[in-house]
């Protein structure tokens, strides 16, 4: 009985090895590995590695090969404590810092801004799955509903005018903007020669991810969903 079982196991191993050696199997395994890696990278970029302990010690290693972020804004500390808070958020064509912005929203106590922006590049399937935004021909859709959109130059001009309308330079606030949103916004405005004017109309940026880590240390997760549910 033992010999038969051993022989059967040997045959199964041989069959499994033969299957794993085929081109089709290797291709599928590689595809699944890429999907898993892309999913993990997307989460880390948008939310940060909020599950990892002492992640703050490793932040200097993030995106070493990426382009540099926005330069320091002159007079950043001047009036920073009294600046009006302007919460902003971006949706993009992908997870790279050079991705196109496809939706830009911002709001404060008394003002709000929202615009869909026609991209110059295709929206990745993963980004479209998350944002529910797509483009067919010259029409943008959100959750299968047609939405009005603007060209990049027009949308960014409108956003700059919106920021400029504040009596006091606002402080732009977001949860994980240090890793992603700031860089994307900077790249977009720089490409349209608007960064210098825009940066002169704001007090600076504040990322709430690091703020929550200081106020609530040793939490298992600092994702926006977890913070809203538990605090």
UniProtKB/TrEMBL annotation:
Pfam families cross-referenced by the UniProt entry: Exu_RNase_H_like (PF22123)
| Region listing for Disordered, in residue ranges | 1-30
Residue ranges spanning the membrane: these are: none
Residue ranges occupied by any Exuperantia RNAse H-like domain in the UniProt entry: 88-212
Q: Is Magnesium one of the keywords UniProt gives this record?
A: yes
GO CC entries: cytoplasm
- Cofactors: Mg(2+)
Q: Which GO terms describe its molecular function?
A: 3'-5'-DNA exonuclease activity; metal ion binding; nucleic acid binding
Q: Does the keyword Zinc apply?
A: no
Q: What CDD domains does this protein's entry cite? A: DEDDh (cd06127)
GO BP, one annotated term: DNA catabolic process
Q: Where is the composition biased (Basic residues)?
A: 12-30
The alphabetical list of record keywords is: Exonuclease, Hydrolase, Magnesium, Metal-binding, Nuclease
Q: What is this protein called?
A: Exuperantia RNAse H-like domain-containing protein
What organism does the UniProt record list as the source?
Answer: Mytilus coruscus
């Amino acid at each position: 009985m033992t010999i038969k079982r051993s022989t059967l196991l040997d045959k199964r191993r041989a069959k499994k090895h033969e299957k794993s050696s085929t081109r089709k199997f290797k291709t599928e395994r590689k595809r699944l590995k890429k999907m898993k890696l892309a999913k993990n990278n997307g989460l880390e970029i948008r939310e940060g590695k909020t599950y990892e302990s002492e992640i703050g010690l490793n932040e200097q290693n993030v995106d070493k090969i990426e382009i540099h972020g926005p330069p320091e804004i002159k007079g950043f500390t001047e009036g920073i404590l009294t600046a009006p808070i302007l919460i902003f958020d971006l949706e993009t064509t992908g997870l790279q810092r050079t991705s196109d912005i496809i939706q830009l929203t911002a709001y404060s106590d008394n003002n709000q801004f929202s615009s869909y922006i026609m991209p110059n590049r295709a929206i990745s399937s993963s980004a479209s799955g998350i944002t529910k935004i797509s483009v067919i021909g010259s029409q943008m859709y959100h959750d299968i509903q047609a939405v009005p959109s603007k060209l990049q130059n027009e949308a960014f001009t409108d956003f700059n005018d919106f920021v400029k309308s504040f009596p006091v330079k606002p402080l732009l606030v977001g949860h994980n903007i240090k890793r992603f949103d700031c860089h994307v916004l900077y790249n977009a405005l720089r490409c349209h020669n608007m960064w210098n004017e825009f940066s002169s109309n704001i007090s600076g940026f504040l990322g709430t991810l690091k703020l929550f880590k200081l106020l609530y240390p040793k939490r298992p997760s600092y994702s926006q969903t977890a913070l809203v549910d538990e605090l």
